[in-house]
Write a structure and sequence with these properties.
It is a single chain. This protein is α/β, with parallel strands linked by helices. The chain contains 20 helices and 13 strands. α15 links the parallel β12 and β13. α14 crosses α15. It is elongated and about 70 Å long.
Amino acid sequence: MATVRLSEQIIPKYQASFLDTKHMHHILSSGRAGTKSSEAAIKAVYKIVSEDDCSVVVIRKFHNKLKKTVYKEVLRAMSRLGLRKKDFKITIAPMEIRYKRNGNTIYFTGSDNIDDTKGMIDEEKPIKLVIIDEVTEFFEKGEGEDELQNIEATFVRGNDEDFTMMYLYNPPKNPKAPVTVWREKMATRPDTLCIHTDYRDVPPQWLGKKLIESAEQLKAVDEKMYRWLWLGEPVGIDEVIYYMFDEKKHVVDLRKEAKEDEDPYSRITYIGIGVDYGQQNATTYQAFGLSMPDHKIYGIDEFYHSGRESGYQKSPSEYAKEYKDFKARIEAETKKKVVFTYIDPSARGLSEEIKRLCPEVNIVPAENDVKLGIQRQSMLLSFGVLSINPRQKHLIEEMYLYSYNTDLLDKGKEEPIKENDHCEDATRYLCMGFWKYIRQLLPYLSDKSTEKET
């Protein structure tokens, strides 16, 4: 096997701490492309290959996130270290990587409940390294510090000297977020080492010009988003969620932009409709066109009806008729078919009525991860990829009103107020549904769908 220098695989900022056993807790935070996941994966492989008796445990909050993230990163680390996969026993069920020469193993597990980690103790090979990836998830969807302490208590037993806990995460915007408060508390302990990195700490040739250009472009158009996304700074949460919305920049009418005798919709690749349904609250259809040649998503039109405001609540069958008419109008104007319709997953009755009237429609239950959807839509607005048609007047109005609960922000929680959000929800559904196409326009802004790290 070829000789591989660790200094050529790990950025300088991590090199001094790579073999550190003085500090039991290593907290690694970063912006995008900070290489913390790469460093942790290399350390995991290095441990089981270089030591005689050693096991490693890699943990995420949820089992279903393991295979495409930390497991994949460890496989990549084996190649970076010049190791041959045939020298390892690699299995998915159970998810383990065992080095054949000494029997040392890397175990992968979720922490869906406390029992998931209790059974991971290796009686023959002491566990010397525990890596906890995406620590923020343990605070947002778990028991936070209590859960982390339970994990530590499970694995620290029987280890007299060489035992390390590594924690990896991208800082939330909110400086009062529980994971940020926890890190500040841990940083005061003498057994804790905190390292923060961003893409500027990484040799440019490792990242490539395109990634660096993408970061600098965001800096030019939205410095606050750049500081959070790429530098990993807790920049604070604006009360208005889409603070970057600028009517002069984001409101575009393709019909007025087109040259004389030019089809304004000729460069549209796909048309989709996002649907948010309410019984007394508003029901809205937001139509957008995705242009792959222009690297843009253009607003086209909207339908909006509020039973509370109008005093008349329409039935699902009436709304389905409105959808059919709206779709027909969009298709007549653009001379293109509506390819996808993303509907509020709770609106099953409306979905069935639309299918009955429009059997040709491809209805997709919307992915309703609010936080992730807001992050994605914010990036699209910041980069000027997403624009809105002047006819989408209710959506434009909500851009100025859709806000976080300030009382909860003070407690470290990012919770949108359930007001002025119907058009925003419909647009978010569409952005989430179109993401597999949209992410091609933003190749270096991968998030949870591609798990953030290089």
